[in-house]
Structure formats: structure tokens, C-alpha cells
Here is the input.
Amino acid sequence: MKSAVKAAMERTIIFSIAAVYIVQQLTELEMLTPVLGCLVFLAIALLLPNLKGLTFWLTVSFIVSGTVLMLLQRVEASVWFASAGINVTIVTLFLFAPLFGIPVRLPEYVEALKRFYEENFRSKAALFIGTQFLTQIMGVFINVGSIPVVYQMVFVKPQPGMSRLLANALNRGFAGAILWSPYFAAMTLVTSALDLPWSSVLPYLLGLAVLSLVISLAVDFRELQEAATEPPQQELAAKQGGAVFPIGLGLYLITAIIAIFILERLVELPMVMLICMAAVLFPLFWCMTKGAMSVYRHGLMNHVTVTLPALQKEITLFLAAGFFSGSIGATRFGSSVPAMLEQIPLSVSLTFSLFTVALIAGTSLIGLHPIVPVTILAGGIDPASVQISSMYFAVLLLGSWSLSNPISPASAVNNLLAGLFKKPVFEVAVPNYKFAGCMAIVLIIYLMIVVS
Here is the structure.
């Protein structure tokens, strides 16, 4: 069992990385880059023994490969430190963004959501789409925590013949949240690397999120029809109308998004800094006005003692992936990509789009986290060199990340669903292959028609 001293050291190093990053963003002091780099290397060394299996070996391979590439290129120390700090924005996000989910778990909201579910989603198709949509909305704020929350609402009563379909809906709903949530690592990584405001990419990504609902329904429509022939369960059918979505919760979700949108337009600070500010103040203010400070204190303590330790695997992997992508950048890999793509008898933009989708989805299929190829591509490829805009590139990367998540046997969501439904993880992932393939085709068409 991990000692209390070691656990405290691990928390301290994570908080230190976030603190130095925040000070650096506010002061723009270049002298803090080596400090930040050293903290990252120290964090990886301290957290690495906690990792197991594939994550451990991936992290080690990124550090070793990155070190070898750096030595071969004979880069200066400043490049080592800068590369080590590439993904510190994500560590900072992990530290603060989950605080937005505290008010979502207020008991009155959870109970109202259960009533909303029981009284409104009676048809199989409505239950399927409603589950996916609610998971997407909740996922924007509470990340993977949305899965057990929505699961408990859906299965408050038996759902005969719907287990596999509802697992698909939960999985794809979370994938939809990846597309547009400002609080996710995916959005932070892509918008920071491409220097794009979140509000500028939001309209395109919301359109893609809506399309994901339509495609999901189309892919599983025949199975939904078959499930509809199951003997009906005893329902609350005597009721007419149905409960409305909890007004207080809806107001919180909308105002939290609007707050970020307004801050981004009015305050000249990086997106991560704005999220940190809002994550500290907004949930606290909301819980104070609701007289629910005990819920806030419990949520804060749970975040520090449970959520953060559980995220150490991702934090270590992401920091190592950032260092590795920096070493790839030092090799000038990005400048050779256009020349290679020109050998293929298609437009460079289309070829690169197909290559990107295939790379991210293909590596996810075998268990590699999307952050690895996305970090390398976002940091190493100049969009203009492959004849696309930064906006196009951002939607391409986020869309590819989103569609790859439901098919990855290593994703946190698939492993969580496997536990909830008591099935092997591959049995949870395989039904989403068809969905991912259709989303990949729609993504390319969407980019060519809407974004370009």
C-alpha cells in the first residue's frame, strides 16, 4: 500500500507543476521554463513506479525514444525543458476542471434527472438517443464521471434487450463530449498547439456532435427495432406529458459554458487560465447560493484524495507523450510530411486527412491513447504545408480523437463500461467499429464541405 508520505509527495509535485505553469502564463518569465521542465522530469520519475502494463511500457518507451532523439539531434538544454513542458497545460486542466462537476451532483439535481428519465424516455429509440445526449452533456462537465451517473439513471428499472444498445449510447455520448468540451484534455491540447480560441472552433464541433447522434441512431436502428419487439415492461404509462429537465441544473450547465465563452472574449489570457479561474469561483458561488457548501467541501476533498490519484496514470503518460512529441519536432519531421504525401495521386489535404484519421483510429484500436499521435501531429505539422487551415486541422484532430475513443480497448470509458455491464472490454468496444467507420467518412466529408 502506498505510504502517506509518497502520496503527499505525488500531490505536491502535481500542484507544483500547475502553480509554476500559472505563474509563467501570468508573468511570461522565460526563466521558469527550465523550472517547469525539471518538475516534469521529476514527476515522471516519481509517478512511473505506480504504472503497470501497457501504460508503463508506453511511458518508458516515450522517455527513452525521446531521449535518444534529443541526443542524436544534439539539441540545447532549452529544447529539452521546452519539450518536457509541452503537455503541462493538461496537468493544470486535470487539477482544476473537475471542480465544475461538483454542483452537477447536488442531490436535488440527481433525483430530478432520475424522474426526467423515468417519465420521458419510454420508447426504445428515445431511451437510446436520450442516454447518448445526456451522457454528452454531462460528460462535458464531469468527464468519465458522467458514465456511472447516467448509468444509474437509465437502469433505475430493468431495460430488457437494451443493455448492449445502452452501452453503445453511453460510449458514444462521451465521445461526443470530447468533440466540444472546453474542459477536456483534447480541446486544450489542440487549441493550444494551433493557437485557436475555443469559441472559434465550437460551431463546427457542435455540428459534428449533432451528426454523431444521427449516425449512432442510424447504425443501431435495426437493432433498436428488434429491441422494440421485446415484451413491454411495466411503465408509468398512465402519466401524460412527463417531467421536465431540471431547470436549476440546466441553468448551471448553460451559464458555465457562457461564462467561459464571455471570459475568452473579454480577458486576454490562455484558455486554460480562464478555465482555472472559472473552475475555482463558479462552482463555489453556485453551491453557496444553493446552501450546499457541505456538498462542495465533500466534492473538493474527493477530488484531491480520490480523483487526482486516479488520474496519475494519465498525467504521467501525457507528460511523457509531450516530451516525445517535442523530440519528434526537433527532428524536423513535419517538414518531410508534405513531400511524402505528394507521391500519392490525391490532393495533399485529402491524403493528409485520411492519413490522420487512420493513424489516430488505428493506433487507438490497438490500445495507444489518442493523445500520443495528436500531440505529435498538432506540434509537428504546419497546417499550411499540407494545404489546410488551422481550423480544419483542429476539427480533424478532435473528430479523429472522438471517433477513436469508443473503439479503444484501453480507453477509460470502455473499461468502466466493461465493469458496469460485466462484459469483456472487447465485447464493449466491437459494436462501435461500424459507428467509428461511419463517423470517419462523415468527418472527411464534413471537413471538405463545411470547414474548408
Summary: The longest helix spans residues 4-27.
